[in-house]
């Protein structure tokens, strides 16, 4: 009876040409006010993510080719093989194309597989097509105006064919102010337990980091892989600072060593005095300074010719461009520090999932994609409720990337530990995703951690989510050059770059020996906790100390498995 009734209801919806809401929000985010309806003739350039043919199959393949011991370990897919998984089905294409055609619209593909398409249309067309109400919204702080809608719908018959239409309900996010501060050091036992040169703690240079983690200083020969460092928002890397850095800290290598450029969306590297970045420039210094002999490529995703590419779009375009290459860089670090947002809650679930799908495709291609664990602790200081909500960093929370949080090792300390430990004020991200479920490679450790801290379904964070970080490395506060002067900075972007440099060297060793590269790292990492230095104490408060996870023996939501040991990692390969 119930089934019959449902059937009737379904029929009625279809017969009436019903619409289903794809995404909606109650209000514009903090700072934006609706000014009025968007002018009907304004042109919108929308992107549609069509349902990929077999994302589940692709994800299974990622686990097979990335898990040591699996018969397919290291058998990464070609560009065409990945496209075979993600191209939309013929039914999907037929349905979407006939819908657009009925509305006198055409589309053009944005990716080779055709899973992203672009449609240009007027506001009045979009309002009809999507049962939307595109309006002009202005940000009170910046005066930036955008055309967005608070809700949009698609025909019910296309519900399983379209994942997301962008940009619609997602608003630009204002740059977060830095909350890092330095305060006096608190205590860890001061009997030094690490065998490290006595002048290293508190003075982190490339040589000291090489010593701490056992990173070789001999050049990778022959060069067999590339390390990509991502930048966004038209910031670029200052070559003079790189040269000054290498002269001072790597006198044993050619101080003229530089990097090549991949430009996406008109990303720049113009070396003009204004605009050198405080984010990617230091990351390139550590990439070139630690991944000795590995060619480094700066992957600069800009804002497009007319400035129309916002940072969310750049986050989509960057991995999708890398997927279009016959051979993407084998190791990529995406840890841009100047980015306008970094919290998962800044993304709608559909947008985060679409971006994460691109990282899964890079994983299938054998790319080790390494991201920062976040710089604001376990909670979001910018949340509307103010300093309350537990939140994690994205893309760190995507299950197909490796998330790296930060440690510190100060002058008066006996050993390395979580960055918050010594009261430096800096604290690194960690916690549980509200969007992505716990991936199977975490089943070996995360339930034990939840038990150790007494977390239950009633806990205020989502115990079923993907947990971060995976590992950690020094993030406080390595020496860098800025304006050709030495200074230092905190950030999980350093931690991610240090680890990516180690992975690039290990990958080089493998490929030079005729073996496949390391690819998606997490299954390997979770099989080999002993390749990392565990930090059983520490916590990651970041929001008036209100919310924080605590360290435990083994994996924890503060430092993951801890910091990497090069020789032990190499032994596991
Ligand atoms: C599409 O174009 C045709 C011919 O110009 C016109 O008759 C029709 O009304 C248009 N349909 C829509 C939905 O705009
Ligand atoms: C925004 O516009 C107002 C009114 O025109 C002006 O006073 C203010 O300085 C502007 N703010 C910014 C950040 O440009
Ligand atoms: C680096 O380049 C400069 C200018 O081209 C040159 O004078 C210098 O000799 C080079 N240094 C090395 C170590 O090759
Ligand atoms: C908790 O995470 C899961 C994914 O693991 C998600 O489906 C669910 O919506 C999340 N719950 C909340 C309250 O956000
Ligand atoms: C971390 O430890 C503090 C102090 O014991 C405690 O109040 C807090 O609840 C712990 N955090 C979690 C997430 O268990």
Based on CA atoms alone, the radius of gyration comes out at 24 Å
Low-confidence stretches are: 1-16, 179-191
Measured distance between first and last alpha carbons:
59 Å
- How many runs of DSSP E, i.e. beta strands? 23
- What do we call the CATH homologous superfamily of the largest domain? Peptidase S8/S53 domain
Any idea of the CATH topology of the largest domain? Rossmann fold
Identify the overall geometry. Answer: globular
Strand content: 15-25%
Q: Structural class, please?
A: alpha/beta
Signal peptide: 1-17
Main location: secreted
Pfam family, one: Pro-kuma_activ
GO molecular function, one term: tripeptidyl-peptidase activity
Compact overview of the structure:
This is Peptidase S8/S53 domain-containing protein. This protein is α/β, with parallel strands linked by helices and 573 residues long.
Report on this model:
The protein contains 14 helices and 23 strands. It is α/β, with parallel strands linked by helices and 573 residues long. It has 2 domains: 119 residues, no CATH class; 366 residues, Peptidase S8/S53 domain (Rossmann fold). Helix 9 packs parallel to helix 10. It binds 2-acetamido-2-deoxy-beta-D-glucopyranose (5 copies).
Can you tag this structure with a few keywords?
573 residues, alpha/beta, Rossmann fold, 2 domains, 4-stranded antiparallel beta sheet, globular, binds 2-acetamido-2-deoxy-beta-D-glucopyranose, Tripeptidyl-peptidase_I, tripeptidyl-peptidase activity, serine-type endopeptidase activity, protease, signal
